[in-house]
Amino acid sequence: MPLGTPRFQRYIDTCSGARGLAFALYTSNVDLSLALLRNISAFEVALRNAYDIVITRKWHGSTHWLLDYDSPFLRTQIVTQNRKMVDQSYIVR
Questions:
Q1: Which of 15, 50, 56, 62 could form a disulfide with 21 if both were Cys (CB 3.0 to 4.6 A apart)?
Q2: How do strand 78-81 and strand 84-87 relate by DSSP bridges?
Q3: What is the rounded CA–CA span in Å between residue 56 and residue 66?
Q4: This prediction's pTM
Q5: Which residues partner with 86 through β-bridges?
């Protein structure tokens, strides 16, 4: 993985110029970031699943709430902005 001079310089400065120690610190930071990202990813999936469980319990449509065109998630919500009709739900979809 590329490591630019300005970025690596921060590690060299932190390690009082010891390049080997600076690189070890950098790789430790990468390892920590990977571990955190794994946990953040798992949390994101769990959160989406929790939303789905709660919304599915409340949804009484004939198909899943994400796929049903009667769902507020898919329903077009037209509003007026600056004298123009805008589909407010377009970005969400």
A1: 15
A2: antiparallel
A3: 9
A4: 0.55
A5: 79
Q: Yes or no: say if 75 and 89 are a contact pair by the CB < 8 Å rule.
A: yes
Average pLDDT on 65-83 reads 83
Angle subtended at Cα 46 by Cα 29 and Cα 91, rounded to the nearest 5 degrees: 90
Contact 74, 93 (CB under 8 A): yes
The pLDDT tens digits of the residues spanning 3-52 come to 788 889 999 999 999 999 999 999 999 999 999 999 999 999 999 999 99
Instruction: Give residues with Cβ within 8 angstroms of 69, minimum separation 6.
Output: 75
Q: What region, left, alpha or beta, does residue 16 occupy, with left being phi > 0 and alpha being psi -120 to 50 degrees?
A: left
